[in-house]
Amino acid sequence: MIAAQATNNMQYLGNDGSLRFLEWYDTEGTRIKTASEMGVKGTPLLREGWGSGVVQYQSGEKVAYKAINYSLSEQKLYYTQNKKLYQVVNAIEYFTIGYLTIEGDSVSYHFKKGIPAIDQQNENSFYEVLFEGNNLQLLQWNHKKMKDIFNYGGSREKEFVLDQQLYVYQLKENKLRALKQALPAIKKTLPAYAAIIQAYADRHKISVRDKDELVHLIAYLDEQH
Q: Contact at 8 Å (CB) between 154 and 138?
């Protein structure tokens, strides 16, 4: 049985339009307000609305959820059931969430922890996995902060702002390194691959500012050792 903590202190939910028609409550029956109702633009969540996903727990149990979302502000995983909001409290190994877009397409995310500590993160921090190879992994730390935005004329608004940082994880060395999206910086971060990186860039004329092209580069490097 997976444990969940009934939450009644989450200050902000998403701003998805569907929440205007679907109301969520804590276990004491109090309606949970959206961020827009609290006078804050944006959402603290990974994406607005609710996705479906799978959580792999450290106990070995894997559970599918019909309505789940991840708070990038609190770094906590939430799901809804019977119009009640719950926080997942059992130890998680990894989780995936898929969302339907307005255009009818789908987008999915994969998060995992157990990565060496770096910067302000520790081994319990969840990283989005952009590429997962046997030797190299491309990870992204996502975090949202509420900031004051000063507009022309002196007005001030509160808004959730997304901060992101890329990392490359070298599994054999168990090293995690911050990665800048510039070819010289990538070669400096991965000196053992510098010649291979340059040859690949010359051959493919890539722009590592494009994350998809960066993923292809890291996937290529992963195959070289």
A: no
